[in-house]
Design goal:
about 300 residues, alpha/beta, Arc Repressor Mutant, subunit A, two-stranded antiparallel ribbon, 10 helices, 12 strands, LysR_HTH_N, HTH-type transcriptional regulator CysL, transcription, WH-like_DNA-bd_sf
């Protein structure tokens, strides 16, 4: 593997934080500082500027970071070549997932992957679509699994699952016994939604516009940063929402929430995996992609039953 000092430097450069780099490498923060100091002594130059708790690369640091990425990729290539000879899949896979995918899709998927490839270590970052895409562009994630529309010239996007957004209401709501509602009925009801820019919010707004409803007409009383928080607020009778039907299966089964379809047409979206066309893909990355590309890799459909 890479020299531990370069690994520490690369982690700090990517995380822009000594503490986050320490967490990623599972070593202490003083150890990270010692490795950076040793590198700066070796090259007789400052590599990082530390001001107001913010870490930035100096010009020398930017140059070394470029070589650290190249060395890391060279190591990945060597590891893949050796793995192909031995027939094993090893290494470290860096995954990113948006909130719905990270909370409801990836856990069973990662469990299935680990059952096939126990020697692969995985790190999962959960964030919104914008951040996950940015991290894949920056080569700091191997794969990004996203639920919102996105594009970038450096990235390749592949669909791997179809999802549907539904209206969710508490069981005592006047709509609770209905199978569907019209989008024309939505304005005027108190709504609890994800923050602007989230994948779920973007897909909902685009579908409303296509059906002639201005999203600004919705009576939004609260914006929350997680689907779980939204579900709890809806259960408490604070309002209704539009979220993925993947996320309410347990609540629906136990009559804690009711899911209602949109009458005019389903609010469907594709989950996508994004990877950088310029980043070398290890055997672990290729193995995870192969699972995503299978029609029913581990019966993902069971998640929506």
């Amino acid at each position: 593997m890479l020299d531990i000092q370069l690994l520490a430097f690369k982690a700090v450069a990517q995380k822009k934080s000594f503490s986050k780099a320490a967490n990623e490498l599972h070593i202490s923060q003083p150890a990270i500082s010692a490795h950076i100091q040793a590198l700066e002594d070796r090259f007789n130059t400052r590599l990082l500027d530390r001001t107001n708790r913010k870490v930035t690369l100096t010009e020398a640091g930017k140059l070394l970071y470029k070589y650290a990425l190249e060395l890391s990729e060279l190591y990945d290539r060597a590891e893949k070549a050796m793995a192909e000879i031995s027939g094993t899949v090893k290494g470290h896979l860096l995954l990113g997932g948006t909130l719905t995918i990270g909370e409801y899709v990836l856990p069973p998927m990662i469990g299935y992957f680990k059952s096939l490839y126990p020697d692969v270590d995985l790190t999962l970052e959960i964030a919104n679509t914008e951040r996950i895409v940015r991290r894949v562009v920056q080569h700091t994630l191997d794969l990004g699994l996203i639920e919102g529309p996105a594009s970038h010239p450096d990235l390749i996007f592949e669909d791997f699952f179809h999802d549907e957004l539904v209206v969710v209401v508490p069981p005592n709501h006047p709509w609770a016994g209905r199978r569907s509602v019209s989008v024309k009925e939505l304005p005027g009801h108190p709504f609890i939604l994800r923050e602007p820019g989230s994948g779920t919010r973007v897909v909902m707004e685009e579908n409303l516009k296509m059906l002639g409803v201005d999203p600004a007409e919705l009576k939004i009383i609260m914006e929350l940063g997680s689907t779980q928080a939204i579900k709890e607020a809806v259960k408490a009778g604070m309002g209704i929402s539009i979220i993925s039907n993947l996320t309410v299966k347990i609540e629906s089964r136990y009559n804690l929430l009711r899911e209602i379809h949109i009458k005019e047409k389903p609010f469907r979206r594709n989950f996508q995996v994004a990877y950088n066309r310029h980043k070398f893909r290890t055997r672990a990355t290729e193995a995870f992609l192969s699972i995503l590309r299978q029609p029913a890799p581990f019966k993902l459909q069971s998640l929506v039953k």
